[in-house]
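User: I'll paste a sequence; please echo it back and then give the predicted structure.

Assistant: Echoing your sequence first, then the prediction.
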Amino acid sequence: MLVVTGAQRSGTTFLAGYLRLLGYDMGSDFFHEDIDGGFEHPDICWYYRDKLQDAKFPFSDFDEAIGKNRKRVEFDKIKNDCVKFSFLLMNPRFIEIWKEGRGFGNDKFIIMVRDPAKVVRSKQRSPMVSKRFSTDSDLLKLTAEELGFNMWKSLSLLLGYGADITLIPFPGILEDPSYLVKILMAKLSIDYLNFFQLLHILKDHINPDKVHIK
């Protein structure tokens, strides 16, 4: 399973949206128009909520947004080719929970990396956006310094556990879309003959105006 992750406001929705355009089921169609974010895999979020015993994880009205009647899938039984869980690097404990629930032998992680200060500023860029993120779990309300430390610690744990990780700088990757296509083709075993088609789709998908804090 390919896991699109990193921290909030780091391009995870951008990448998940591209994978959806390629036909991959990310596990959720839900999208926040007001913050240009979404596609979190519900079963991963619910698993973490249970483990953390945090009713607000990832945010307080998550169930209403996703749909309360959705049938749950056990964390270790998730079979999507691709999923999005944009919180993995935001707390080292999240790494341990993944290890306990699935291990790292069968998953590949595309980690979108962004300056923590810009992550925080993106979450505060307007009163409307700040209000939306105010409903997040307290575990996700971090200063730039806290987030930077947690990201470093989480990456260290992933490397120590031998996880298959690839770091993608955001928004820098928007200037070199061919590199991202090559990475995804290798991780998803896509025939290289499709390269130019995938590159064309990605270039059409890129919208620099969606990068709110540059």
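The chain has one domain: 2-210. The first helix runs from residue 12 to 21.
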